[in-house]
Amino acid sequence: DAGVIQSPRHEVTEMGQEVTLRCKPISGHDYLFWYRQTMMRGLELLIYFNNNVPIDDSGMPEDRFSAKMPNASFSTLKIQPSEPRDSAVYFCASSLRLVDEKLFFGSGTQLSVL
Amino acid sequence: KQEVTQIPAALSVPEGENLVLNCSFTDSAIYNLQWFRQDPGKGLTSLLLIQSSQREQTSGRLNASLDKSSGRSTLYIAASQPGDSATYLCALGYSTLTFGKGTMLLVSP
């Protein structure tokens, strides 16, 4: 398996624009997670899915953020409208089970909102 | 709310040295713990997973231990090499993982 695949690797946009980040989890993994990493706050869990169903979105910072998982092999994280404080690295990760299983990360999307 | 602290934030050692990275947490009601490695500009790679029934895990030159009663985990790296230079993060939780901010390790030749 190619691992968790994220696109794009880098995204530069202007404040107010819509941003869509994409993720393909490892085939067969039932859990998909979206994390955000900043120098100040470290890695924060935004939302996670089980079998394509959102389970916990309490980490989503505000209504400008939304995530979907239309099928087992694809998920999106959307920010609309984007703000400079959204600049961060966004990671997607997947695992077989919620506990007692390794978590596999994608390479991340470096987002810069100007 | 679980809080995970990693000290030191940065560590520099000469090649060949054995070293210990520390991770402390506030809530001992955790199910499992993982240690990750992150290279600059890259994603995280899970190095060791200590499952709910375990207290220790080893892989090559790496050994991780978990003491829930004291709220501590350690990652031991034997005979460090320049290729070990990276940021090491611990993550733990009852269900989803809470991450520490990591220890940036530099191993000099």
Give keywords.
heterodimer, A: 114 residues, mainly beta, four-stranded antiparallel beta sheet, 11 strands, 0% helix, globular, B: 109 residues, five-stranded antiparallel beta sheet
What do these coordinates show?
- The complex is a heterodimer of chains A (114) and B (109).
- Chain A is mostly beta strands.
- In chain A, 0% of the residues lie in helices and 54% in strands.
- Chain A has strands at 5-7, 10-13, 19-24, 31-38, 42-50, 53-56, 65-71, 74-79, 88-95, 104-105, 109-113.
- In chain A, strands 2, 4, 5, 6, 9, 10 and 11 form a seven-stranded mixed beta sheet that branches.
- In chain A, a hairpin with a 2-residue loop joins strand 7 (65-71) and strand 8.
- The radius of gyration of chain A is 13 Å and the shape is globular.
- Chain B is mainly beta.
- Helices cover 0% and strands 57% of the residues of chain B.
- Chain B has no helices and eleven strands.
- In chain B, the strands form two sheets. In chain B, strands 2, 4, 5, 9, 10 and 11 form a six-stranded mixed beta sheet that branches. In chain B, strands 1-3-8-7-6 form a five-stranded antiparallel beta sheet, with no helix packed on it.
- In chain B, strand 4 and strand 5 form a beta hairpin.
- Chain B is globular and about 40 Å long.
- Chain B starts with a strand and ends with a strand.
- The interface between A and B is medium-sized, with 20 and 23 residues.
Query: How large is the share of residues in beta strands of chain A?
Result: over 45%
What is the global morphology of chain A? globular
Give Rg of chain B in angstroms: 13 Å
Overall strand count of chain A? 11
| Helix residue percentage of chain B | under 10%
Global shape of chain B? globular
Query: Could you tell me how far the N terminus lies from the C terminus of chain A, measured between alpha carbons in angstroms?
Result: 36 Å
Low-pLDDT windows of residues of chain B: none
Residue-averaged pLDDT of chain A, rounded?
A: 96
Q: Determine the fraction of residues in helical runs of chain A and give it as a percent range.
A: under 10%
Structural class of chain B: mainly beta
User: Separation of termini of chain B?
Assistant: 41 Å
Largest sheet of chain A: 7 strands, mixed
Largest interface: A-B, 20 and 23 residues
Provide the residue-averaged pLDDT of chain B. Answer: 94
Number of helices of chain B: 0
Biggest β-sheet of chain B, characterized?
6 strands, mixed
Return residue spans of chain A where pLDDT drops below 50 for at least 5 consecutive residues: none
Report the order of strands and helices of chain B: EEEEEEEEEEE
